[in-house]
Automatic annotation (TrEMBL):
Biased composition regions of type Polar residues, renumbered to the chain: 207-222
Keywords, alphabetical: Plasmid
Descriptive protein name: Uncharacterized protein
Top-level taxonomic group: Bacteria
Region spans: Disordered: 199-222
Amino acid sequence: METSTPIPTPWPELTDLAELNFRHKVGIVAQRGSREAKVGRDIAVHAAKAGVPTLLYTGYPPNEQTDWLAVDETPNPTPADENARAQRRINGEKPSFVVIERYERLSPTPPPYREWDDPIDDPDEPESRADQLMWSVREIRIDLPLLLTTVVDPEPQLSRRMSTWLHIDHPAMVMTDVCKPTLVVHRTSPQTVDTRMEVDPHEYRTGSRSTLQWTPLNLRQP
């Protein structure tokens, strides 16, 4: 079910910037090992606490559970899995929000078997992993806000486009083809995070940078 009201996040400035509403696909890129790397879990738990039926795909279930949060630990979900799972009710209601942490775990939906298929005579080259990932996201056909997250190893260089410091096939680069907006985030102080709008449906915002108030929710969590 589409909604015009943005899904709430723990950080109001991020809520305004991400625009998690309607059927938008939003991507967030953070550095591996940083507290921002678990932004998907933080947002999912916060939304569920606010009464939003939320489906979270993660390999690291949050310690805190709520009635409006459903956690799926499938290691490599397919688009078909997610399309079907989004129809299952959470506390009596259909999901209104889906989060996929480390979205590069997605696996393509296997094609239907056809007896006349002859792979020997198939002239097409195998799809790259980047292409498989892109098509897997595009095959997620849900009329809900969808948040995807991924991580990078180097420190994010917010003054430059990602294409200058990441390989074109990196999941963060693939994300820019399927998620508008895609945000790159990097902590600059205990209370603030700098962001770069790597790509955005509003062309004037693409490449823009912002400093957001973003205090970690629980400094004791790994």
